[in-house]
């Protein structure tokens, strides 16, 4: 965006060399004509002087794109003008002729800072082996595409069970990318790398799932996983993490950083005890500030209610909300055998109705509150 149109060409050309960036060009007279449905992640204002026209344009941008990082590109400024920019809280100021690498870095850091505050990460954690957390995570990501995100936003499913890579196998989307190409130099991981390793599911969400058991013991595994998660989180407004029940080097750090968490368990005593241990561990990571909800999966309907009463659940888990997810073995088995989502077989199944209710009445409000 420029107050002097001839300066826009060079800026636009530089930014569009990055595959994940798309430029929407405008000027002071057409700012209000920018499509309201277009997601704007950063604004670059280009001009020669920090004059009244540029300041007026900056105020318009602040009003129309509140919260987005603003980068100013101009000729050299004096001390008073520089102080004025600081007061206006612009993200960065660059001088003409702008260096391409400086402009790209400024845009990337501006977007990263904004997205850290706005993008949401939800962990689906298996409270015990075989609880069905992967199936739940796969369908949650599917439902978020159709019920939560706005135009231009995206959802990712990141599978942290590198021992099995079950998310990819469940959807017949096995990722062939060899992570050993990058494991020795994890510092090379960036947003472009995230685009390279992602798979896109038919219904619209992105999957990051790898069967790489060697990551569990590799000396660089910890740094690799955290850098991958950071890159993925910056790319997507919502990220669902499928976290297995077993301990890994990075598990606590990942859980300590999420916005909210769903613990998936079953209605038998060993599973509930394992889940209680996991719950206590999560509570200890951030002084109990992580919103946690428990889903008791594979629940069978009974004539006289559940075998787990509300009083018993409160005795076990205190004030942590608990939800029962209907058992639907035939649906889940067919979906796994065919490598498709449960929703592609039946949109009205007991399982999906229960999960949709959980998403809309409990999970989404929890995410939006963070």
TrEMBL record:
<dbReference type="Pfam" id="PF01656">
    <property type="entry name" value="CbiA"/>
</dbReference>
<dbReference type="GO" id="GO:0005524">
    <property type="term" value="F:ATP binding"/>
</dbReference>
<keyword id="KW-0067">ATP-binding</keyword>
<dbReference type="GO" id="GO:0000160">
    <property type="term" value="P:phosphorelay signal transduction system"/>
</dbReference>
<dbReference type="InterPro" id="IPR002586">
    <property type="entry name" value="CobQ/CobB/MinD/ParA_Nub-bd_dom"/>
</dbReference>
<dbReference type="GO" id="GO:0009898">
    <property type="term" value="C:cytoplasmic side of plasma membrane"/>
</dbReference>
<dbReference type="GO" id="GO:0016887">
    <property type="term" value="F:ATP hydrolysis activity"/>
</dbReference>
<feature type="domain" description="Response regulatory">
    <location>
        <begin position="1"/>
        <end position="111"/>
    </location>
</feature>
<dbReference type="InterPro" id="IPR001789">
    <property type="entry name" value="Sig_transdc_resp-reg_receiver"/>
</dbReference>
<dbReference type="GO" id="GO:0005829">
    <property type="term" value="C:cytosol"/>
</dbReference>
<dbReference type="InterPro" id="IPR050625">
    <property type="entry name" value="ParA/MinD_ATPase"/>
</dbReference>
<dbReference type="GO" id="GO:0051782">
    <property type="term" value="P:negative regulation of cell division"/>
</dbReference>
<keyword id="KW-0547">Nucleotide-binding</keyword>
<dbReference type="InterPro" id="IPR011006">
    <property type="entry name" value="CheY-like_superfamily"/>
</dbReference>
<dbReference type="InterPro" id="IPR027417">
    <property type="entry name" value="P-loop_NTPase"/>
</dbReference>
<protein>
    <recommendedName>
        <fullName>Response regulatory domain-containing protein</fullName>
    </recommendedName>
</protein>
């Amino acid at each position: 965006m420029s107050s002097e149109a001839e300066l826009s060409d060079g800026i636009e050309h530089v930014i569009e060399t990055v595959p994940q960036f798309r430029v929407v060009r405008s000027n002071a007279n057409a700012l209000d004509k920018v499509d309201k449905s277009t997601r704007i992640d950063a604004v670059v204002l280009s001009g020669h002087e920090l004059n009244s026209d540029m300041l007026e344009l900056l105020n318009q941008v602040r009003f129309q794109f509140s919260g987005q990082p603003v980068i100013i590109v101009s000729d050299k400024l004096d001390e008073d003008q520089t102080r004025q920019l600081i007061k206006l809280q612009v993200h960065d100021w660059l001088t003409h002729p702008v260096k391409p690498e400086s402009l790209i870095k400024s845009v990337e850091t501006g977007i990263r800072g904004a997205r850290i505050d706005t993008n949401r990460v939800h962990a689906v954690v298996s409270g015990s082996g075989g609880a069905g957390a992967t199936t739940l995570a796969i369908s949650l990501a599917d439902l978020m595409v159709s019920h939560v995100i706005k135009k231009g936003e995206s959802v990712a499913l990141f599978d942290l069970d590198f021992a099995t890579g079950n998310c990819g196998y469940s959807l017949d989307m096995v990722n062939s990318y060899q992570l050993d190409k990058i494991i020795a130099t994890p510092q090379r991981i960036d947003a472009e790398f995230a685009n390279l390793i992602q798979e896109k599911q038919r219904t619209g969400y992105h999957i990051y799932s790898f069967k790489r058991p060697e990551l569990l013991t590799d000396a660089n595994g910890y740094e690799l996983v955290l850098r991958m998660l950071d890159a993925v989180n910056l790319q997507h407004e919502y990220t669902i993490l499928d976290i297995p029940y077993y301990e890994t080097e990075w598990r606590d750090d990942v859980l300590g950083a999420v916005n909210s968490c769903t613990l998936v368990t079953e209605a038998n005593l060993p599973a509930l005890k394992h889940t209680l241990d996991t719950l206590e561990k999560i509570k200890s990571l951030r002084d109990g500030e992580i919103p946690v909800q428990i889903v008791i999966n594979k629940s069978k309907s009974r004539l006289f209610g559940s075998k787990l009463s509300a009083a018993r659940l409160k005795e076990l888990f205190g004030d942590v909300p608990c939800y029962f997810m209907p058992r639907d073995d035939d649906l889940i088995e067919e979906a796994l055998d065919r490598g498709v989502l449960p929703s592609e077989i039946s949109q009205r199944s007991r399982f999906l109705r229960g999960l949709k209710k959980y998403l809309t009445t409990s999970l989404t409000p929890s995410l939006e509150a963070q």
